[in-house]
Design goal:
The complex is a heterotrimer. By secondary structure, chain A is of the alpha+beta class. Among the domains of chain A are: 5-49, Uridine Diphospho-n-acetylenolpyruvylglucosamine Reductase, domain 2; 225-324, Enolase-like, domain 1 (2-Layer Sandwich), CATH 3.30.390.50. Helices cover 28% and strands 19% of the residues of chain A. Chain A has helices at 12-19, 33-38, 74-78, 81-86, 88-96, 100-105, 108-112, 164-170, 189-192, 272-278, 285-295, 308-324; strands spanning 5-8, 24-27, 46-49, 58-60, 66-69, 174-178, 184-188, 211-217, 224-230, 241-250, 253-262. A 5-stranded antiparallel beta sheet of chain A has the order 4-5-8-6-7. Chain A has a 3-stranded parallel beta sheet with strand order 1-3-2, covered by helices on one side. A 3-stranded antiparallel beta sheet of chain A has the order 9-10-11. Chain A starts with a strand and ends with a helix. Chain B contains 6 helices and 5 strands. Chain B has helices spanning 20-27, 72-75, 83-90, 100-115, 134-140, 151-166, and strands at 2-5, 8-11, 46-49, 52-55, 68-70. In chain B, a hairpin with a 2-residue loop joins strand 1 (2-5) and strand 2 (8-11). The longest helix of chain B is centred in the middle third of the chain and has 16 residues, at 100-115. Among the domains of chain C are: 2-41 and 447-573, 2-Layer Sandwich (Aldehyde Oxidoreductase, domain 4); 356-444 and 582-726, Aldehyde Oxidoreductase, domain 4 (2-Layer Sandwich), CATH 3.30.365.10. The longest helix of chain C is centred in the C-terminal third of the chain and has 24 residues, at 513-536. The mean pLDDT of chain C is 97. In chain C, the strands form 7 sheets. Chain C has a 7-stranded mixed beta sheet, with helices on both faces. Chain C is built from 18 helices and 31 strands. In chain C, strand 22 and strand 23 (461-464) form a beta hairpin. Chain C is globular and about 70 Å long. The chains are: A alpha+beta, B alpha+beta, C alpha+beta. Chains in contact: A-B, A-C, B-C. The interface between B and C is large, with 64 and 62 residues.
């Protein structure tokens, strides 16, 4: 780690002020930031400890939804009675990620900001446009096993590695962000993360000095909620492909199909065409296969990760079959 | 700025870069907590902070002003080992011993987590009471790597200790 | 006084069985166990030494070329930095196991990505690590044509080749033939304790606390690296947090810490980061293995071919010996065994748990499963049918051979059904369920070793050797061997290990530790027994040692009358190593579930039946087997080192991306220890255990995957993508 100035923020505005200059970073759980600081992938001049700000609460909202404070730990969220009862896909996604030790420290806000696991991003002597703009991408003609197949650019093929945000994308949650002064803004989770494009260093829409204060979930929608994570170990591994699904049947027809995908893109991947395609139809192997065609119509492999295209297809079929009770 | 470790108070380090792990091992000489990867990928550094298990490598000591930490040295001693420590001994839940303090700290917390009915990835029902099944133990212990391959014995040790503690 | 035994003949007396104390073989908990479970066992980097500086290695960010300069002025200007150690004696690679001489030095000449080139020393770890990451190197890079072992020329290892009869003709004319190539990816030892050392220099003598497996060789390697006389060096490794081959030879941290301490006249600690362990220690080579079998209609082999390619850096003599057990395991008068080594600039290839058989046996056993299917023979029966009664090439006898018993006992306990082996018989929802089996084999070695046994005036015993216990149970089994021989409960036997101030042991590696130092302790104990009997005025043959008394009468303490008996035992294998083929044998049985959509595989049941001679401690022996089975699961499903094609660096250089098995990957496993005394293995009739448990297990899992879902996966590990690709629609 490079030397840095450690400051404990007493108030939110204070934190915002301290993190506004270039080189200011806020820290809460620290499970991702410290990992990267030790590797000198992250080299903040000022580290602003926001862990004691009063943002850990989980509360009901007026419209019957739920607001999860930015500093609520992943554990607190996953074991919350309302999350377990009304948003099981979120509890499942969190529990499928990391370990109990990490979930005890990791926070809602931090998890949304989790940076990629790309091998080339984390090795400072390798080229990486995300870490060092203009240095190139080591993964495109290197080992791209864990990399993206959707929404990539010729500058970056990294993935967003988390699980929680994939469930939040399926749930159409909203991120609350505090900025300078009293200004706050609300951004749908589905729009929070960026695609790499020509600005691969940008993971998400946060501006300097902005701090996530919470996430709100809409009123419960019920349905069958599944988080399916395909990984190389049975636990404690990042997703090769994951699917968050909220599916509801009305008689023989699918009446809701909110889907989001992890491990395939620089952001939790949500494609509204899938819902359009599935809702109102009778579930069948052909229907699921066509859904996969839609999902993957622009998919591109980079050699080592070509397998993710058939894997995403097969995983989607398995999830939809399970969720709709269809034999395929 | 102070921190309490195993009921004893210490001053926090001046250098904010010092991880809680390095603080324990180097500054105050509690080397029972192990460094296996320094990146939250092995669990050897697991300690309890306020009763919750965390990776002490991925947190800064200065962020723990006023916190209370329990390490393997605070869980039991050679003359007065905890039921889990005795069970690990009896069931050979270790070989080289390097991951062992982390395993035992994890297992200590695990029993509380199950008692609190916190679900895991292995739980069929998120809301039901949790049984201490082998699969629940395995999932919940998966944050502690053991390269010697003592997992089968670790699971046996945890089951035996839980049984003893319930009796 | 030193008592010596050079073993030229099998020892069928089974002396340990005639002793009366009754501690040998018993499942007693480890004698050092309380220290481990309470965190008081002290590992290398944990000694509290005042004024200790911290060093972090600077590494080359390229694969081949020369570092011409390091900007030391800039580093010395950084906070806390005390020195930058640039010394041509610094080692560029770790020493191979039993090298007994300095490994490659002159670190500025770079031959692999991440090679250590210098050491930054600072007052604190944070300052040292920070400076090392920011070191500016000037260098000339030499282009490397390819980092892919399949793209370069390879040398055949003539000394391990077997060419007998005409394999090609046998295959052409056989009732059933197999010709298949199986690939395995590289592995990392990934011991949980990273390599680390603390060096102290008093101006004349050097003491180094290090994490090493073979101090008896390491002391020479270190002294040779430093150009220091060996008697001025002391190495201490009382507890070692796992080795698995990665700590056989002296590693780069040991030499770097020593050079820094000698230059700065202050103690210096160097602990590798986890990434450095991945980059600079040892990898198990990847392999490509071709099998050609010729069999008659019953599946009996007339032709056996195993040709393999592995890789290593130039200058390294080690070649992953994947043919080692193929040499003698199965019949076939027409034989072709050839191993070739491709020279590539990935980091050093060396020993990782069970070098050779760990990947050679699973591959062989996949090919055997293919033959069983083709010949329509129960896979268990096929193995039994092909067990030779002597070495199939050189005709030497086996010292003892328990393969058939292990296969039969294992099959019985597992509930093996060999009759209907067609794939895709059982499905549970999304999951195909199947079973598979494989033979296990691992050559047995013993080595020269010395152990000192002192029967103290108070009637207790002290045992001393520089042998290490890397988690295998050496502390405990030595207490049991000595306790049994001298008639003492194990709590009356104090075992001290891991210090070169003690007599030279065998070192821990190649599964030879227990048999070698156990035998040396046995030799020492015989001498102690003789001496005590002489004092008591009786013939040793008439003596019974039990509970600290001779023949149930006088206590040892009374007989010793204030004196002590101090004997060093030296054991050395003689003609037995030439006259016999000695090996551990066994059988694996596995049940798996394979997801028909995602190709994820979960092992749901695993059983190993092993014959490894005398069991010295039933508890720790079983744990060794369980460890091997766990590694089998890793090798089968998750473990693969990935290398960048452009510069050869390890891309998955941490424990998040290199997937060692986690607790949830390992089901309940059953271990059967086949009763055996191997008289030509050692005078205590014991053989190695630690490696046997993974020599074939991944093959059983592969065969179970095939049986479950019909996917014949020919590249290990069998990750979901490979299973899907091999799965029939």
């Amino acid at each position: 780690m490079r030397p840095f100035d450690y400051q404990r923020a007493e108030r939110l505005e204070h934190a915002s002020q301290l993190t506004r200059p270039e080189g200011g970073r806020s820290i809460a759980g620290g499970t991702n930031l410290l990992d990267l600081m030790k590797l000198q992938v992250e080299t903040p001049d000022t580290l602003v400890d926001i862990s004691r700000l009063p943002m850990a609460g989980i509360e009901d909202t007026d419209d019957g939804g739920l607001r999860i404070g930015a500093l609520a730990s992943n554990t607190a969220t996953a074991v919350h009675p309302r999350v377990k009862a009304d948003y099981p896909v979120l509890a499942r996604a969190i529990l499928a990620g990391a370990t109990q030790q990490l979930r005890n420290k990791a926070t809602t806000g931090g998890n949304l900001c989790q940076r990629t696991r790309c091998y080339y991003f984390t090795q400072i002597n390798q080229p990486c446009n995300k870490r060092e703009p203009g240095s190139g991408c080591g993964a495109i003609d290197g080992i791209a096993r864990i990399h993206a197949i959707l929404g990539t650019s010729d500058q970056c093929i990294a993935t967003y590695p988390g699980d929680m945000a994939v469930a939040l994308a399926a749930l159409d949650a909203t991120v609350e962000i505090a900025g300078e002064g009293e200004r706050t803004r609300r951004v749908p989770v589905r729009d929070f993360h960026c695609l790499p494009g020509d600005t691969p260093w940008r993971d998400n829409v946060l501006e300097d000095g902005e701090i996530i204060t919470g996430v709100t979930l809409p009123a419960p929608v019920g349905g069958t909620q599944i988080y399916r994570k395909v990984r190389e170990r049975s636990s404690y591994a990042f997703a090769l492909v994951s699917v968050a699904a909220i599916v509801e049947m009305d008689g023989d027809l699918i009446s809701r199909a909110d889907l989001a995908f992890g491990g395939v893109a620089h952001k939790p991947w949500h494609d509204p065409r899938l819902s359009d395609h599935l809702v109102g139809s009778v579930p069948s192997a052909e229907l699921f296969d066509k859904a996969a065609d839609i999902l993957l119509d622009t998919a591109q492999g980079y050699g080592e990760n070509d397998f993710k295209i058939p894997l995403a297809r097969r995983t989607l079929s398995a999830v939809l079959a399970h969720a709709t009770g269809t034999k395929i | 700025m102070t921190i309490t470790v195993n009921d004893k108070q210490y001053d926090l380090p001046d250098d904010p870069r010092v991880s809680l792990l390095d603080f324990l091992r180097r500054d105050i000489g509690l080397t029972g907590t192990k460094k296996g990867c320094d990146h939250g990928q092995c669990g050897a550094c697991t300690v309890l902070v306020g009763g919750m298990r965390i990776n002490s490598c991925l947190t800064l000591a200065v962020m723990h002003d006023g916190d209370s930490v329990q390490t393997i040295e605070g869980i039991g001693t050679e003359t007065d080992p905890s039921p889990l420590q005795r069970a690990f001994l009896e069931h050979d839940g270790y070989q080289c011993g390097y991951c062992t303090p982390g395993q035992i700290c994890s297992a200590t917390a695990l029993l509380d987590e199950i008692a609190n009915n916190w679900p895991s990835d292995a739980s069929d029902d998120l809301e039901a009471a949790i049984d201490l099944t082998d699969e629940e133990i395995r999932e919940r212990m998966s944050g502690n790597l053991c390269r010697c391959g003592a997992y089968v014995n670790i699971v046996a040790a945890i089951k035996a200790a839980a049984k003893e503690m319930a009796a | 006084m030193t008592a010596k035994l050079k073993q030229d003949e099998p020892d069928t007396r089974n002396i340990l069985d005639t002793m009366k104390q009754g501690v040998i073989g018993k499942p007693i908990p480890r004698v050092e166990g309380l220290a481990k479970v309470t965190g008081t066992a002290t590992y290398a980097a944990e000694y509290k030494i005042d004024g200790c500086l911290e060093g972090v290695m600077i590494q080359a960010p390229f694969a081949k070329g020369t570092v011409t300069a390091i900007d030391t002025d800039a580093l010395l200007a950084m906070p806390g930095v005390v020195a930058v150690i640039e010394d041509p004696r610094q080692t560029a690679r770790a020493a191979q196991g039993t090298a007994n001489e300095a490994p490659v030095q002159e670190p500025m000449t770079v031959t692999y990505y991440g090679q250590p080139v210098a050491l930054v020393v600072a007052e604190t770890f944070e300052d040292a690590r920070n400076a090392a990451a920011q070191a500016k190197l000037t260098y000339d890079i030499e282009q490397v044509g390819s980092f892919d072992p399949q793209d370069v020329e390879a040398e055949v290892q003539e000394d391990s080749a077997t060419r007998q009869g005409d394999l090609a003709h046998a295959v052409k004319t056989a009732a059933h033939a197999i010709d298949t190539t199986i690939h395995t990816e590289g592995h990392a030892s990934a011991a949980m304790e990273p390599h680390g050392s603390i060096a102290e220099w008093d101006g004349r003598n050097l003491t180094v606390y290090a994490s090493l497996q073979m101090l008896n060789y390491n002391i020479t390697e270190l002294a040779d690296s430093l150009d220091l006389e060996e008697d001025r060096v002391r190495l201490v490794s009382r507890y070692v947090g796992g080795g698995f081959g990665s700590k056989l030879g002296v590693s780069e941290d040991v030499v770097a810490a020593s050079l820094a301490a000698m230059q700065l006249n202050r103690p210096v600690r160097v602990v590798m980061t986890r990434q450095q362990v991945f980059q600079t220690v040892m990898r198990r080579s990847e392999s490509a293995q071709r099998f050609r079998f010729a069999a008659d209609s019953e599946g009996t082999l007339s032709g056996f071919g195993h040709e393999a390619r592995v890789s290593n850096l130039p200058q390294e003599s080690f070649a992953e010996p994947v043919l080692q057990s193929s040499d003698f395991l199965y019949k076939g008068e027409n034989r072709l065994l050839e191993l070739e080594v491709a020279r590539i600039h990935r980091m050093t290839a060396g020993s990782v748990r069970a070098p050779g058989e760990a990947i050679g046996m699973p591959a062989l056993e996949i090919a055997m499963d293919m033959l069983a299917e083709k010949a329509g023979v129960d896979p268990v029966e096929l193995r039994i049918r092909n067990i030779p009664d002597k070495h199939p090439a050189n005709g030497k006898p086996f010292s003892s051979h328990k393969l058939e018993e292990a296969l039969r006992q294992g099959a019985e306990a597992f509930g093996w059904d060999g009759a209907n082996r067609a794939p895709r018989q059982t499905r549970d929802g999304e999951w195909w369920i199947g079973t598979g089996m494989a033979s296990a084999a691992r050559v047995h070695n013993v080595s020269k070793a010395q152990v000192r046994v002192v029967l103290a005036a108070d009637g207790t015993a002290r045992v001393e050797t520089d042998m290490t216990d890397i988690g295998t149970g050496t502390y405990t089994i030595l207490a049991q061997v000595v306790g049994e021989m001298l008639g003492l409960e194990t709590d009356k036997v104090l075992v001290s290990l891991g210090d070169t101030a003690f007599p030279r042991g065998s070192g821990s590696g190649g599964s030879w530790g227990a048999a070698s130092v156990g035998s040396a302790a046995f030799v020492a104990c015989n001498a102690v027994r003789d001496a005590l009997c002489e004092k008591a005025g009786i013939n040793t043959d008439d003596a019974e040692f039990k509970d600290g008394r001779l023949n149930g009468g006088k206590t040892f303490s009374d007989i010793l009358d204030g004196t002590e008996i101090d004997r060093t035992g030296e054991y050395e294998p003689g003609d037995i190593s030439e006259d016999y083929v000695a090996s551990g044998f066994g059988a694996f049985f596995a049940e798996v579930r394979v997801n028909r959509f995602t190709g994820e595989t979960r092992v749901t049941r695993m059983l190993g039946a092993f014959g490894f001679g005398r069991v010295l401690n039933e508890k720790t022996a079983r744990s060794q087997c369980l460890g091997g089975i766990t590694w089998s699961i890793g090798a089968a499903l998750t473990e693969a080192l990935l290398f960048d094609p452009k510069d050869g660096h390890v891309v998955n250089q941490d424990l998040a991306e290199y997937h060692v098995p986690v607790c949830r990957d390992v089901p309940d496993c059953e271990v059967i220890m086949v009763d055996e005394r191997d008289p030509a293995a050692s005078p205590i009739q014991a053989k190695g255990i630690g490696e046997l448990g993974m020599c074939g297990g991944a093959g059983a899992i592969a065969n179970a995957i095939y049986n479950a879902c019909g996917a014949r996966v020919l590249t290990l590990p069998m990750t979901p993508d490979r299973v899907i690709a091999a799965m029939p629609d």
